[in-house]
Amino acid sequence: MALQDPSLKRDQLYAWDQWLVWRLGGRPWPASFLIAGILWVSYWVFAWAVGVYSEIGLDQIPGGPGPDDGADAPALLFGLGPYGWAATIFSLLGGYAATVVSYNLVAQRNESAEAARMLGLEREELLATWDEHLRAGRSAARLVGVAGYLFGVAALFPALPGMLELLGYQGRYEFLPPASMQMAAVWFFAVTPFAFSLIAKYFYLTIDEGRLWSRLRRDVDAPDIFDATKLRPVTKAAMRGSFTWVIGATIGSLFFLSSGIDRSVLLPFFIGIGIVAIANLFVPLVGWHRKIIAEKERQLKDVRRVIDRCWTRLKSAEDDDVALAKIGGLLALEARIQAAREWPIDFSTIGRLAFYLAIPLISWIGGALMERAVDAAIG
User: 131 near 80, Cβ under 8 Å?
Assistant: First the structure.
């Protein structure tokens, strides 16, 4: 089977981030790395331009341990101070957040034919339903994005080393940031809120898409309980949605490798992302599980009603062998209905899902071990 086109189409653009991906070639993953690279380079170009890294030395790295810093001064990570490390992670997060919605739009279009068959619709009818639903929710998505932007601005003050002290509040560290660090913070206030805005908007779109799938599920005919493969679009959508949030949480978890970044604000935020990943996985599966259970119960009632009628007639028959032969097929059908799978997933899928959910923990542990190895090699 030929691979489907993995690029974003012109008629799939609903917001500025999708327009950006389309302008960068329409392929979400290459665009994600390109945006992340541009953001990362922009930090270092800006830092050098304003004199933050004008001299090489640990005491010139924003947030790094200088000669006059106390014991609470944040340590370097992979040779980077907290600002350099945070800029690296925010660049990755920004590139990912700017393209994740486009990735889902591409996947939806590529899976639309199979999903339409499952729902008993024509492919173009399903695509038109998706398009109408997404366009109707653009205003609400923008408002959520603005709220995410404001949250991103507010989160920077306690998260960036020395910002609270600079404003005259009691912060985590005993030192005030030098002028160079204050200049480096400008980049974060220019870039970071947009990443939070895109994450917040994607959170809204995830919930909104779940509502659409719930409505489609209610309208669809009863599922085929004997062939769970027909529900593969449900499993694909649930796994894809969960995986995209897991990747976001994985990138965010890298913040916590640096002791110079305050976790008090970011930790609850990324725990929330993990909760969304789990909910995005199980909520649609539970919905279809209930629909399958309801269909099994309906079919069991029907076949048992027929069995009861036949048994009443056959009890009076003189030939027991004939009676058993006639009712045997009904009993086999009843057993088959009872044995039918009640979830649209199998054990191999469950294994992949468990691996997805373990990715943030694996990446965090792996990053910590690698950082220790690098420090040991350097020192």
Answer: no
Q: Which residues pair with 16 in a beta bridge?
A: none
What does the block give as tokens for 80?
Answer: 């980077």
User: Please, what is the end-to-end C-alpha distance for the chain in angstroms?
Assistant: 53
What's the CA angle centered on 171, arms 170 and 172, to 5 degrees? Answer: 135
Cα(94)–Cα(92) distance, integer angstroms = 5
Q: How far apart are CA 27 and CA 21, in angstroms?
A: 7
Give the model confidence (pLDDT) of 326-357 as tens digits: 677 788 888 888 888 877 776 566 666 666 66
- CA separation for the pair 74, 300 (Å, rounded): 65
Alpha-carbon separation of residue 22 from 104, 130, 205 (angstroms): 14, 19, 19
On whether the CB atoms of residues 112 and 127 are closer than 8 A, the answer is yes
String of DSSP letters for 81-128: -HHHHHHHHHHHHHHHHTTHHHHHHHHHHHTHHHHHHHHT--HHHHHH
How confident is the model over 127-171, as pLDDT tens digits?
888 888 888 888 999 999 999 999 888 887 777 766 666 666 665
pTM as predicted: 0.74
